[in-house]
Amino acid sequence: MGLPKPEGKQVDVLYLSDEDNIVVLGTAGSGKTTIALVRAVNMAKNYPDDIVLILTYNRTLIKYMEFILEDSPKNLLIQNYHKLARGYLNSRGKMETNAILQSKNKLIAEALDKVKNKYPDENTLERHMDIFIDEIEWIQKMGIMDQETYIKIERTGRRDARILRKNRIYFYEVYQQYVDLRNKRGYLYDWDSIATAVFEEAQRDDTEKRYKYILVDEGQDFSPMMLKSLSMLVSKDGSINFFGDENQQIYGSRISWRSAGLNNVKIWKLEKNYRNKSGVGKLAKAISELPFFEIDENDKIDSIVPDVVGPNPLVIKCRDKKEEIESLMGLVDNSDVSRTKAVLVKTREDVNLISSIFAEKGIEHTILKKDMGKWKNTDNLHIGTYHSAKGLEFDLVFLPFMSDRYMPTEEEIAKYGSKQDALVKFVKLIYVSVTRAKSGVIITYVDKLTELLPEDTSLYDLRNGYE
C-alpha cells in the first residue's frame, strides 16, 4: 500500500528542515500521521547510513504503519516507546529478567494501608484507591523526584476530585511506600517509571547516539518523561519531530516544550480536516466544544469543518441491551461489504462480548489488539477499544453502549472522584473514536444518551431500534 499524497499546508510541513526540532499539532484527520510517515521515509532515503525511528504508543497502529511502509528503507524503524526503553536499558546492562512490575495496583493498596496505619485520623487517606493510583501514575509520568516539587507544581486535569496542596504530603508518602515495596519485591521498574530510568541512564551514557531522527506520532499519548528521555537518545546533529492532536496538554500540567526536552522548537498547526465528511466533522467539532473537553488555550486550534458533504451520524435508541446488540448486528451485516468498518467500545470485556456474538452469527471480523498479526487490507471489519483505534481510520464506525448509565458507570464516577472528572477522562476518547470515521458514524444506546455526546439533535439522524 502506498503513502497518501500530502496536500495544502501538509506540504509546507513536509519540507521543513530535517535538522530542526518541530512540533506539529493538528485536528483529527489533518494528516499528521501522513506527514510523519512521508518525512520519515524521505529522511531514511536521504541519510542511508543513519537510523530513522518512528515511535508511537499504540502497538495496533504499528501494525498498520508496517503495512503501509512494507517497502520502506531498511534504516527506517517503527517501534512503540516501551520496546525502545527496554532495549536501551538492556544494552546498558540495566534490564534484568522480570525487572518490570506489570501491574502496581496491589502494591499501591498495600502502601496505602501502611500510610493509613500511620495516620489513622487523616480523612484524605479514605479517598477511593483509584485516585491514589491515578496520582502516582501522574507523579511518575511528570518525573517528579521529591515531595517539595510535587507540592509546588501546578496540577491541572482534575475538577471536583482536586487534591489540596496541604494533602499532597499523604499522597507522596503513599508513593514512596509503593516504590519501597516494589523494590523489596525485586522489581526495578514499572511501566510508568521506566521513562525516568531511561532519562537518568542516558545522562550517564557518553557513547554515540543510535538515532539521528526520531519522529513521534500520536504524541499526545507520551508523558513528559518519555519526551525528555527521547531528547537524550537522539544524536546532537539530529532532531525530534513531534506530531500530536490539537487537544495536546501534557498530563494535566502546563509545561513548556523546552521542559519536555525539545529546545528551539518550531510549532506548526494544521486546521483542515481531510479525513471526515461534513456530518462526522460537525459532530467532532461539537464534542471538542463541550464544557468538560479540557484543552490548553495555547494549543487550541480552530478546526475547519470538512468541505466534502456527508450524512449526519445515525443515533439509534434501543429498549434494552439485547435489542441494541441485535440492531448492531443487523447494521453491520447489511452495510456495504467493500467499506472498512470498526465497532469501537470502552473495555476489552465489551470487545470480547461483541466478538463472541458476531462469531456465533458467522460475521467475520478482526480484533484490534497489541499482539495482532500482520495488518491485512482485506480485513473489512474490526472490533476494538477506543484506545486501540488511535491513529487508524475506517469508512464507517459503530459506537454501541453509549448510554448515560454506562458512559460513565457509577463505579467509574467513584474511581475518578466525581461525574465531571469521569466525563473529562472519557470525552477525548469519544472524540478520537468519532474521528476515526471517514464517512459515517452509527451510535446506539438504551434509555438516555450519554452526556459525552452533544445535546444538539440537528447533528444527528435519530431513530428507534425497533422501527
SSE layout and pairing:
Blueprint (H helix, E strand, L loop, with lengths): L8 H6 L7 E5 L5 H15 L4 E6 L2 H10 L7 E5 H11 L8 E2 L3 H14 L10 H14 L4 H6 L15 H17 L4 E2 L3 H11 L6 E6 L7 H8 L2 E12 L20 E5 L7 H11 L25 E5 L2 H14 L6 E5 L2 H13 L5 E2 L13 E5 L8 E6 L10 H7 L2 H16 L2 E10 L14 E4 L3
Parallel strand pairs: 1-7, 1-8, 2-3, 2-6, 4-5, 6-7, 9-14, 9-15, 10-12, 10-13, 11-12, 13-14
InterPro entries: DNA_helicase_UvrD-like_C, DNA_helicase_UvrD/REP, P-loop_NTPase, UvrD-like_ATP-bd
Protein name: DNA 3'-5' helicase
GO cellular component, one term: cytosol
Tell me what the structure shows.
Keywords: ATP-binding, Helicase, Hydrolase, Isomerase, Nucleotide-binding. It is an enzyme of class 5 (isomerase). There is one protein chain. By secondary structure, the chain is α/β, with parallel strands linked by helices. It has 3 domains: 9-93 and 192-270, P-loop containing nucleotide triphosphate hydrolases (Rossmann fold); 103-184; 278-464, Rossmann fold, CATH 3.40.50.300. The protein contains 15 helices and 15 strands. The strands form 3 sheets. It has a 7-stranded parallel β-sheet with strand order 11-12-10-13-14-9-15, with helices on both faces. α4 (81-91) packs across α9 (194-204). The longest helix has 17 residues, at 168-184.
